[in-house]
TrEMBL record:
It comes from Tripterygium wilfordii (Thunder God vine). GO terms for biological process: methylation. The keyword Metal-binding applies. Keywords: Magnesium, Metal-binding, Methyltransferase, Transferase. InterPro entries: MeTrfase_7, MeTrfase_capping, SAM-dependent_MTases_sf. One of its GO terms (molecular function) is methyltransferase activity. This is Gibberellic acid methyltransferase 2. It holds the Pfam family Methyltransf_7.
């Protein structure tokens, strides 16, 4: 849809069509990464999650090496059911396929070496129903070889997705920092937790942070309770999520000041929303009705949830940091700030476009991402800062 003017009438129509009061409550219907494979798609903007996977790969492989092997003893001797692996929050693109390949191959080699068996494997690609499963299935069928049967499982990982004791391994990579909903109080004008003037919680007032932290606690517990039912005894739950070190209070979601200044959810994003308000394209209420449903947990918060849930033993748990991009890339962008702005805008499009569009509609979403791009490419101080993403990696065994 293209809307040529910003007249009152046009804005009224856009509001009716695109500002459903309850979009925050129905988040599971709209939250997803941008599908397809154009420049603003998740498939083309998933380098940071790919680096996170590379960083934690040794931990995942070690966990698989020490995992219990599963057998059925029948009349013909030792046998096995299929081995079943789920990727929860798989999105589209290369990362999920590479992860499943890695898990299957490492298990296959172990069974061959240790008991001369060739198990069958089933891989479940799970994400919210709004995920672009079509792109994922196309990539799956384009693979030259595949040692597993594949299925898509639409649904929220904050609910049950599988029958009891179905899974041997569940992984969830760069997904659990997405909350099940925006806390109601944060978008309630009458509440002290109303998050006025910000798109996210980093640096927000205490009540906002508390509301997010409470939601995060509930979500983590719901997630674990469901996986406790679904994973077989001896099976593995491997989680990698955006996180913060324990020493950092929740209002400081991102750590060092450079990361806070430069993170795509913070300053430039708030400025872009303010630009739309200043230009009369949206009113303040519309701006304040939008919040990013993400929360970076501390190690302690994750550990407490695991202990409270029971049924899992933490085998290993670490906080790690990764650099946003390489030194070469940074030098390239310093010479060409416009391409830097474009790259960063594509990154936020890939991550936020579906939820921004549910709130604003396509035309105003385009305007927002354009303002973001302009803001980022014109702030030269940002270009010289290096930012770090924090992640928490946990390997837990179902006991
Ligand atoms: C940043 S992507 C990570 C994708 C992939 N795991 C990777 O490492 O590239 C996060 C994914 O989590 C999914 N997600 C967020 N909340 C979810 C939920 N409640 N249930 C299932 N998937 C969810 C999103 O739809 C998105 O596809």
């Amino acid at each position: 849809m293209s809307i040529p003017t910003k007249s009152e009438a046009a804005l009224d129509i856009m509001k009716k069509e695109y500002y459903p009061e309850t979009w925050t409550g129905g988040l599971h219907r709209v939250l997803c990464m941008q599908g397809g494979d154009d420049d603003g798609s998740y498939a083309k903007n998933s380098e940071a999650p790919a680096s996170a996977i590379t960083l934690c790969k040794p931990m995942l492989l070690t966990a698989i090496q020490s995992m219990k092997l599963f057998f059925n003893n029948n009349e013909e001797g030792a046998d096995h059911d299929s081995l079943r692996i789920a990727d929860l929050g798989c999105a589209t693109g290369y990362n999920t396929l590479a992860t499943i390949d890695m898990v299957v191959e490492s298990l296959r080699l172990r069974y061959a070496k240790e008991c001369s068996l060739e198990p069958e494997f089933e891989a479940f690609f799970s994400d919210l129903p709004s995920n672009d499963f079509n792109s994922l299935f196309k990539s799956l069928s384009a693979k030259k070889s595949r040692n597993y049967y594949a299925a898509g499982v639409p649904g929220s990982f904050y609910y049950r997705l599988f029958a009891k004791r179905k899974l041997h391994i569940a992984v969830s990579l760069s997904a659990l920092h997405w909350l099940s909903q925006i806390p109601d109080a944060v978008v309630d004008k009458a509440s002290p937790a109303w998050n006025k003037g910000r798109a996210w919680i980093d640096g927000a007032k205490e009540e906002v942070v508390e509301a997010y932290a409470k939601q995060s606690e509930k979500d983590m517990e719901d997630f674990l309770r469901c996986r406790k039912e679904e994973i077989l005894q001896g099976g593995i739950l491997f989680m990698l999520m955006g996180g913060r070190p324990g020493s950092q209070p929740p209002e400081n979601q991102l750590g060092d000041p450079d990361s806070r200044a430069k993170h795509p959810f913070t300053n430039s994003m708030d400025q872009a929303w303010q630009d739309l308000v200043n230009e009369g394209l949206i009113d303040e209420e519309t701006r304040d009705g939008f919040n990013i449903p993400a929360y970076m947990r501390s190690m302690e918060e994750v550990e407490n949830a695991i202990r409270k849930c029971g049924g899992f033993e933490i085998q290993r748990m670490e906080y790690k940091t990764l650099v946003e991009h390489s030194e070469d890339k940074q030098q390239e962008w310093i010479k060409d700030p416009v391409s830097y702005g474009r790259a960063k805008a594509n990154l936020v499009r890939a991550t936020l476009r579906p939820i921004v569009e549910a709130h604003l509609g396509p035309y105003l979403s385009d305007q927002l991402f354009k303002r973001f791009e302009e803001r980022v490419s014109s702030d030269f101080t940002l270009l010289h800062k290096t930012i770090f993403y924090g992640v928490i990696v946990v390997c837990a065994v179902r006991i």
